[in-house]
Amino acid sequence: MFAAYFDCPGGPENLYMKEVMKPSPGQGEVLVKVSASALNRADLLQRRGKYPPPEGASDILGLEAAGSVAGLGPGCRGRWKIGDAVMALLSGGGQAQYVTVPEGHLMPIPKDMTFIQAAAIPEAWLTAFQLLHFVGKIQEGETVLIHAGASGVGMAAIQLVRLAKAIPIVTAGTEEKLKATAKAGAAAGFNYKNEDFSEKVLEFTQDCVGGSYWEKNLNCLSTDGRWIIYGLLSGGEVHGDLLARLLSKRASIHTSLLRSRDKEYKERLVRAFTEDALPYFSGGASPRLQPLVDSVYPLHKIAEAHRVMEENKNTGKIVIEVPVCFKKGPLL
């Protein structure tokens, strides 16, 4: 089969189409013929050599995929059959013609949804669901401040906060992105590039003052509030009395990564999401959840997709369509 690949860490120009062995499903695994995958920040970091896949995971990029069941490994419990339309949470390998997946990491694709739309769900929506419910323990009526509100995870979080009957407010870097977040359900949005988001949050919640970046986040926390960190694109250094400030508010910081979680945790997460959120993606559901697809690139143009994400041009998910036939060579 063919897969997007790179031999040396570096820029998007290092990506190329490589012919590799088609995987075979192991114990309890399902072979999926991939129709679409999607791009995540983790793919960019892995390409740069800064985020290696977990031990035992495929070194092919791609943390999510949508497609059809093409094979069943020994020990599968009979939930899936050949031809089923599925979407998958992966530790790697999604940007290829085929990928193997533990059967408990698969979800059915709603009947009125395309593979392109479905590919935009697993990583972003399961990450947001995990952060809100498994980590943050969101409660009805709470206000949730979501940074990078127009990202794939951000747009998912906005809708999931609404589903939980809480109030989503966001930050984003352009007015266009803020409009998109409002359309998705954000109660308020602030441009972090040209205004002090902590002051704007104060106007909205009456519970925040200004300061440095980490201080602004901390000051926006209410007493007993939770600050959840799942990425450090703005850097990880902190200077000042962070712990004392946290203690004074009885606040807590939670950090989380999804990719490195064990198989059983991911199965519990997928099961909870399938039961509690997936039904709201179907037509007629209220409220209706919808993945936002920014753009679609064929797999042989994945380098261009990487460049778009690196420049923060996307609102929502960048989806990678996997054609049936490929040509070898650089992915320009």
From TrEMBL:
UniProt keyword annotations, A-Z: Acetylation, NADP, Oxidoreductase
SMART domains documented for this protein: PKS_ER
Top-level lineage group: Eukaryota
Domain Enoyl reductase (ER): 10-320
GO molecular function, one term: NADPH binding
Coiled coil: none
Pfam families: ADH_N, ADH_zinc_N
CDD domains, sorted: p53_inducible_oxidoreductase
Protein name: Quinone oxidoreductase PIG3 isoform X2
